[in-house]
Amino acid sequence: MFDRRLITNFNWAYLLLVLMICLIGIANMYSATSSWTAAVLPVHLKQFYWVGIGLAIVAIVCLFDYRHLEYFSVPLYGCNLLLLGMVLAFGKTIMGATRWIGLAGLNVQPSEIMKIVIIIALARYFSEKANLRGFSLGELVLPGLILGVPALLIMKQPDLGTALLVLCIGGTMALFAGVRRSAIIFLGMSGVAAVCGGWFLLHDYQKKRILTFLNPEQDPLGAGYHIIQSKIAVGSGGFNGLGFMKGTQSQLSFLPERHTDFAFSVFAEEWGLTGCLLLLAFYCLIVLWGLHIALRSNDRFGMYLAIGVCAMLFWHIVVNLGMVIGLLPVVGVPLPLFSYGGTSMVTTMTGIGLLLNVGMRRFMF
Amino acid sequence: MSLNPSPEETPGLRRRFIISSIIVAGVFCILALRLWYLQILGTDYYRDLSERNRIRYVAIQAPRGAVFDRHGVLLVDNRPAFTVSALRQEVDDRKQLFANLAKLLDIDEAMLEERWQKGQSLPRYRPLPLVEDVGRQAMEMVQENSIDLPGLLIEVKPLRSYPFGDMAAHLFGYLGEVTEDELRQSEFSDYRSGEMVGKTALEKAYESRLQGDAGQKRIEVNVRGRELRQVTIRSPLPGQQVYLTIDSDLQQAAENALADNAGAIVALDVNSGEVLALVSRPTFDPAWFARGITSEEWRDLSNNPQHPMTNKALRGQYPPGSTFKMAVALAALEAGTVTPATKVYCSGSLKLSRSYEFRCWKKGGHGSVDLHKAIKESCDVWFYQVGLETGIDRISSAAKRLGLGAQTGFPFGSERSGLIPTREWKKKRFGTSWYDGETVISSIGQGFVLTTPMQLATMAAALANGGTVWRPQVVQKIVDLEGNAEWVLDPEKLNETAWSSEHLTLVRKAMEAVVNDVGGTAWRSRLDKVRFAGKTGTAQVVRRKSDEEEEESEEGEVPYQFRDHALFVSYAPAENPQIAVAVVVEHGGHGSSAAAPVAKAMYDAYFADEAKAEEVTKLISTED
Beta strand B67-68 with B241-244: parallel, antiparallel or unpaired? Predict the structure, then answer.
């Protein structure tokens, strides 16, 4: 079963690119948390271990032919939906949101796993129902449900950011698969209606975040604090940056959540536009190269799988960077590979594993 | 497996890939543009904001100017005081922190909470003072236990210190935190809340000179406001130094002489009006105010019936009693109603009419009395008779020319003006005409007549120097940091009366006799090394109702607040006078027994030094 071609076709360069982003992230984390009193295990070292775990996941994912996933997609989806339900029933509540569930001694965040599972489920649906004229509204009911039910459950947690990301990923896949013009118009209009209606369902802190995004100076010490401090950090970086470990915004702790969601602000302050453009180029390359892998894939399922992973990476990157530089409201979305966090690392590496899996098996017939 | 052809070979899909790639690249371009906008166009703007985040300007309090006496003895100084303050943004568990701190310093937890609440009006980043002036040992204890006291820091501030304790406290006045009301006024525009300003007396009057220039340091702080490093510093400039005309030895002797009695003492240089000593007792400890007085301490001070917060030398108004008699004598001599030889027979009382009888203090009477004896033995009847003949308006005129009945012009302390009555005054005040009986009691310094100890001292000085009323002044010079005199005392004449030298000599000889001749009322207070001249006074506080009552009441049995005030005005040496001293002992009894000994003790101290000083000058001159 194991083919020598698998090794030769493995995209080492892509993995190297991913690793480089991870290493830049770890260095950045080292700087961001240097003012902290020494913990038993410093954050940057923990992230280092997470990268190792991520690589192991890539290896494991690549071992099995991705095409097997087509058969497992239904039970995978079902199980994960069940987990999401369990989260709402007896999950752990941290800071007003219920996102975690204890599973075999680990804290698991089913909404994160759901991103991958949705990609697999939709890839199967769209590859089976391939339709070059585009999907009609009726044909979109099932994928709509596949996407909508978990999105609603996630929104109930409440985790608006993840819910929106799941919708974005699914929507991107659907658009790529082709949607008829009439369906687009209908969905677009109902989307607008949903946004207007949804405003009343939002939590106060969520409404506040959106209002604060529109006018951060309105509440500079409260809800607007994150955006203002982040913009100050990014802006004061200038062309060349203030230098590694020399960013005052991060070193003096004015920047909140600087090793997680706002890690890029730290990087921007210390490395300036030069560093930012380099990192931006890396991320752009990751997505475009992913699209290229999708294009060259051997079958529709693999293609949609790769498209889904690209969409996941793309939306995470765009939403996080948009937030950090004040283009989008503050949504708790980490920057893939760069922000600290095991969950994010595992999800992202699983996706990248799938992408590489698709890429290395395009000659397997 | 899949029956579909490869996406690469499907033209429709290929187009979608191209469009997707363009969209992805486009979005990344938007992100890059935004970064360019923030980081290139916005660099200066955001660097400025970042600077403002981390750089704080902290005022460094300037040490207030020191105060010295006329010989350069340090009277008021500053010392470093350690304050335990809290950085509110670093305090997570206030209860625990206060419990730890209270236990460590053995103080009340509730007090800490009170200070915390009181400090909430301070800007959030400013350290909130919790315990002021903790002392070096406590400061070290706090530093050693800093792990259990997260969010605390030690601040060092200059604190007013008083090497002589409460000596001359009324002269210095006290400090207090600048109030919200004051901060709104333009003269306090340089002040920040929490700073100390002079609230009374010297500290208040010379605030602008004593204050100094606050320094400033630029510090880098973290998000919780803790100082990480100093960027730049401009050192504070201490305030100017004030040299007083006070002689600290004399001042100390005066304070000791008055001891636990309530009252006031003023000692003046008779030839310039310089204040050599100024005492008001009971007094307060200005150090309490410098560190921040507690409400309990303040309550005790303000409820004390002897009014320790009032400067009695300037604001106490007392009937002068017999110390007023020199004014009456001079007025009578001037008017020609008496000559040095005029004799009045004192039978022990003067009957003005059938119902009004005014008694002399000496029950048996003084017999035949002339001016010299009248002053020496303080015969009341002589003054009743002479006063009546002279008339109140002429007496008032003489008294006013001796410095009574008007403010002396002492530079601070809002002195009272006392009262010297005239016919016109009474008409205006009460709408009634003047009665002879009122002239009679005015002649012995009772009735409407009121004087302040400061006025009595200027009067004694005027008698001593031949009739010049000098404005009493207490600041000798003000010196800047380089030692240049910014201001120097310039003696100021308020009134110069050309009394006939014959009249003046007569009165002064009589005053000399009061102390130095047998039978003089202050004979017991005479001093061997220096002859001084003086006049005792005993001022009634309440008029006694009948003879019987007085017969029965022994001095000790009269309730304190009804006892007479004891007074003594004097100058020394009798020939060639240099210093005048006025003493008022509230409810002290007789001037001869309570007030004159105080003056004696002061002259004793003053001329002991003077003798030494003379010896030194002699030695120096012989060496030359």
Answer: parallel
The length of chain B is 624
Say if residue B203's pLDDT is above 90.
yes
Q: Does A338 score more than 90 pLDDT?
A: yes
Q: What are A97's strand-pairing partners?
A: A94
Q: Do A235 and B38 touch (CB under 8 A)?
A: yes
Distance of CA B178 to the CA centre of its chain: 17
pLDDT tens string B77-88: 999 888 898 888
Residue with tokens 């453009």: A277
Backbone φ and ψ for B64, nearest 5 degrees, come out as: -70, 155
CA distance A244 to A253: 15
Q: Which two tokens stand for residue A109?
A: 């965040």
Q: Burial letters for A93-131: b for 16+ Cβ neighbours within 10 Å, e otherwise?
A: eeeebbbbbeeeeeebbbbbbbbbbbbbbbbbbbbeebe
Identify which of B220, B219, B226 has the alpha carbon closest to the alpha carbon of residue B90.
B226
In the CATH scheme, what architecture does the domain B248-619 have?
Answer: 3-Layer(aba) Sandwich (3.40)
Q: How far apart are CA B595 and CA B583, in angstroms?
A: 6
Residue B147 touches chain A, beta carbons under 8 Å: no
SS3 B58: strand
CB B275 within 8 A of CB B472: yes
How far off is chain B from A238, nearest CA to CA, in Å?
Answer: 4
CA-closest candidate to residue B418, choices B381, B380, B377, B457:
B457
By residue count, chain A amounts to 365
Compute and round to an integer the Cα radius of gyration of chain A. 21
Question: Chain A window 120-149: which residues touch B at a Cβ cutoff of 8 Å?
Answer: 127, 130, 132
- Chain B residues close to A280, C-beta within 8 Å: 28, 31-32, 35
Do strands B74-86 and B67-68 pair parallel, antiparallel, or not at all (unpaired)? antiparallel
Helix, strand, coil percent content, chain B, rounded in steps of 5: 45, 20, 35
User: Which tokens hold the place of A259?
Assistant: 């090793």
3-state secondary structure string, B481-534? CCCCEEEECCCCEEEECCCCHHHHHHHHHHHHHHHHCCCCCCHHHCCCCCCCEE
Closest CA in chain B for residue A129? B4
Report residue A27: phi and psi, to 5°.
-60, -45
Which of A173, A271, A284 is the best residue to mutate to test the B interface, defined by the most B CB atoms within 10 Å of its own CB? A284
Q: Give the H or E element holding residue A78.
A: helix A69-90
Instruction: Answer whether A109's CB lies under 8 Å from A91's CB.
Output: no
What ipTM does this complex have? 0.93
E runs forming strands in B87-151: 128-131
Contact A235, B37 (CB under 8 A): no
CATH 3.90.1310.10 residue spans of chain B: 57-244
Half-sphere exposure (CA, 13 Å, Cβ side) for A2? 4
B124–chain A Cβ distance below 8 A for any pair: no
Among residues B402, B381, B371, the alpha carbon closest in space to that of B495 is found at B402
Question: Of A108, A112, A128, A148, nearest to A67 (Cα)?
Answer: A128
Residue A310 confidence class, pLDDT cut points 50, 70, 90 = very high
All CATH 3.40.710.10 domain ranges in chain B, comma separated: 248-619
Q: Check residue A220 and give its pLDDT.
A: 67
CB A280 within 8 A of CB B28: yes
Looking at A84-93, A150-159, A326-335, B309-318, which range is the least confident one? A84-93
CB contact under 8 A, A299 and B27: no
Q: What pLDDT shows up at residue B9?
A: 65
Report DSSP state, residue B367. Answer: E
The tally of CA atoms less than 13 A away on the side-chain side of residue B256 is 13
**Does the domain made of B57-244 have the CATH classification 1.10.357.140?**
no
